[in-house]
Structure formats: structure tokens, C-alpha cells
Design brief:
The chain contains six helices and three strands, in the order αβααβαβαα. The protein is mainly α. The protein has a single domain, classed as Arc Repressor Mutant, subunit A (Orthogonal Bundle), CATH 1.10.10.10. Strands 1-3-2 form a three-stranded antiparallel sheet. The N and C termini lie far apart (60 Å).
């Protein structure tokens, strides 16, 4: 993991990619899965790509043109990236309680009240 700082954002992006490890995801899918903003995920994806953890490709422009949108850039973990991501997420959660930060919010339980003497 030399050269990559494991921030909450990096771990959230890795978690989003690991949720569907055999699927290419485009940026907006990663935004939705990670809960991060686009301006946050794209620099993280570029750092992961530079480190060899993530591969990317542009889709064929024809389907995008037909749908009236720009071509999408798809990302997926490399084999090395997948192994390192699993390790990074486990290590990060163990170290700092990130499992609570990265876990989906739980529904609020009804508060309990104890009746005291009046």
C-alpha cells in the first residue's frame, strides 16, 4: 500500500468497487455506492489507477451518442487492487472503527424511557 493514503474517502471508493468486484462501474455509480461527491471520487480513482489498483476504459461513444449523453468512463479493480483493497478495508476498519462510518445507516430505534419515582 506504499504511496496510497487510506483515507475514509479512499476506503469508501474501494468498498464501492468491492461490492461488485466483477463489474465495471462508471463514476455516478461509484458516487451513489460510496456516498461521496463526484469531486471527491475522481481524484481518488486517478490515484488508485496510478497505483495499479484500478483499471479504466471509455465506453464506445455510439451508445452514449444515441442516448444523448457523454461517453462513460468505466472503472474496475485489478486482481492486485482487489487483494489490496480487501486488506486495506480490513486493516482500516480494525484500526479506526471505520465499519461504523462506512456501514449503511441503521434505522433509529425508539428511545426507551425508564420511569423513575415521582
Amino acid at each position: 500500500m506504499a504511496g496510497l493514503r487510506m483515507t475514509v474517502g479512499v476506503l469508501a471508493v474501494l468498498g464501492a468497487l468491492l461490492d461488485r468486484p466483477d463489474t465495471e462501474l462508471y463514476g455516478l455509480e461509484i458516487v451513489r455506492a460510496s456516498g461521496l461527491e463526484p469531486g471527491t471520487i475522481y481524484p481518488i480513482l486517478q490515484r488508485l489507477r496510478g497505483a495499479g489498483w484500478v483499471s479504466d476504459r471509455w465506453e464506445d461513444p455510439e451508445p452514449a451518442h444515441t442516448e444523448g449523453r457523454p461517453p462513460r468512463r468505466y472503472y474496475r479493480l485489478t486482481a492486485e487492487g482487489r487483494a489490496r483493497a480487501v486488506h486495506a478495508l480490513q486493516h482500516g476498519r480494525d484500526r479506526s472503527g471505520l465499519s461504523r462510518l462506512l456501514a449503511p445507516p441503521r434505522s433509529a430505534a425508539a428511545p426507551t424511557t425508564e420511569a423513575g419515582p415521582e
